[in-house]
Design goal:
about 475 residues; 11 strands; about 15% strand
Length: about 475
């Protein structure tokens, strides 16, 4: 009868352990597939917990152990001791992903203390062979932490006051699973504290299965909800991107004796760069490039504000200093601590004269074909948004056929290569010398390609890029 009972127990160990290991590895695989989703880390720890628990169950199956190679059998006691101590750490890391506020800090502290107990217990086992040197402390820590967690799961009011479990509408599922597991684990841990020979393995399996189902359900719901939110955000960003591109010029102005090319490459879905054309007639036009500090949606919103502000000051297009002064008056009170650099170039092809001014922007590059020379024109006032007054100095420029103007944002000059060297103004100037025969459209694309090639392939584009190339025919 006793042998039949032992056989029945081993069959249970084998079935239960294998089931938990399979479920654990499947859950781990799912967490890796969904690794970018909110809640995937919680799913990962659920998988680790299930797999480790299953391995521990298989460790207690002599029939299975007898089939293993001798060297592996000799390793099993160490595996058994390590899992006995580390399972508490894994459990608290799982609960950590479902909590917030003070309870999250409490669970983290329990995991840290549990790790310390595990280190001492495993160390003692390696040198003395005593697996239970720290077991009582481990069981006591597990039991006391379970009481706290079950109380927070059971009393929603405590969640509201102290920021406990972050479960939303799925708290009942965890309440049922944690209640069953908590009652069984509390009984087992407290019982083993007073009676080290108490055997609750079958109850442990049933309680853990209930908890595992509830944790898996809650974690999967969090992953699904996170993916739905991410999908919603991506849809909104797609719309925002379309709206932002709608505020940019759809074509370049048709001006006599000028060829104009523009490149606009956001680093993310939306950008803080902006450019605009202010044509007066077929011989005169203004060219504006702006760069908002920061990235993403806040910068894109300010770029939209710049669009409206530029339209309202279009009557000052022929006076760069006045135009920038007016922009500062309109925008300064609306920037919420952010800053805007602006470069503005006015060109009159009939008089063959240009006017340039800027607000904290990278210099205008002016290629003079007759002298085969490049001039860096830095006629700058303060950034828009800086709480200082002051004029925006204007530079008068005389140009000739074959000359070229290049306006750009710092997304062109600041990217770094694998050695940490910035692309820089010098590299940009070298390219303008080397590619001086290229027409405006091809040059602008070549500049973009060279900036991209400068950055190592795994590195994402570090900033928004805008380039305006204006050729005098």
């Amino acid at each position: 009868m006793n042998s039949q009972s032992e056989l029945s127990d081993q069959v249970w160990r084998l079935i239960a352990g294998t089931s938990f290991v399979v479920v654990g590895f499947l859950t781990l695989a799912l967490s890796l597939i969904r690794r970018r989703s909110r809640g995937a880390l919680g799913l990962f720890w659920v998988g680790v917990w299930a797999a480790v628990y299953g391995i521990q169950g298989l460790n207690a199956c002599p029939a299975l152990i007898s089939l293993l190679p001798r060297w592996l059998q000799e390793c099993l006691p160490y595996s058994h001791a390590a899992i006995n101590y580390l399972v508490l750490v894994i459990a608290n890391m799982t609960f950590r992903e479902l909590t917030r506020g003070p309870v999250r800090r409490f669970v983290s502290m329990v995991a840290l203390v549990g790790l310390g107990i595990a280190a001492v217990g495993i160390w003692d086992f390696v040198f003395t062979g005593n697996e239970n040197a720290m077991s009582r402390y481990n069981h006591l820590l597990a039991g006391s932490s379970l009481i706290v967690l079950v109380v927070f799961v059971s009393v929603p009011r405590l969640n509201e006051l102290y920021g406990g479990f972050d479960l939303g509408a799925k708290s009942r599922a965890l309440l049922v699973g944690a209640g069953l597991f908590g009652a069984e684990a509390l009984y087992g841990n407290v019982g083993r504290f007073f009676n080290g020979d108490l055997d609750t393995r079958n109850l442990d399996d049933l309680g853990f299965a209930a908890l595992l189902l509830s944790l898996g359900y809650v974690s999967m719901h969090r992953v699904y909800a996170g993916e739905m939110r991410l999908s919603s955000i991506e849809n909104e960003l797609s719309i925002a991107r379309q709206l932002q591109f709608s505020i940019l010029p759809t074509t370049t102005p048709e001006l006599r004796n000028l060829r104009i090319a523009a490149v606009y490459e956001p680093m993310s879905a939306v950008a803080g760069d902006f450019y605009e054309f202010l044509p007066l007639d077929d011989q005169r036009a203004g060219f504006l490039v702006a760069d908002v500090s920061g990235h993403g949606v806040p910068a894109a919103l300010i770029a939209s504000m710049i669009k409206l502000a530029v339209k309202s000051v279009a009557e000052t297009a022929s006076d760069p200093g006045r135009l920038l002064h007016r922009l500062r008056e309109i925008l300064s009170g609306e920037l919420q601590g952010q800053f805007v650099s602006v470069a503005y170039l006015w060109i009159d092809t009939d008089a063959r004269r240009a006017r340039y001014s800027a607000a904290g922007h990278p210099p205008l590059l002016f290629w003079q074909a007759q002298d085969c020379a490049l001039d860096r024109i830095a006629s700058n006032g303060a950034l828009i948004g800086v709480p200082v007054d002051g004029d925006f100095p204007v530079r008068e420029i005389t140009f000739s056929p074959g000359d070229r103007f290049v306006l750009y944002t710092d997304g062109v000059s600041e990217p770094e290569n694998s050695a940490g060297e910035a692309f820089g103004d010098r590299k940009l100037e070298q390219l303008l010398h080397q590619e001086r025969a290229l027409p405006a459209a091809e040059l602008s694309l070549q500049l973009l390609a060279q900036v991209r090639a400068w950055t190592p392939p795994p590195t994402p584009q570090p900033d928004d890029i805008t380039i305006l190339v204006i050729d005098v025919l």
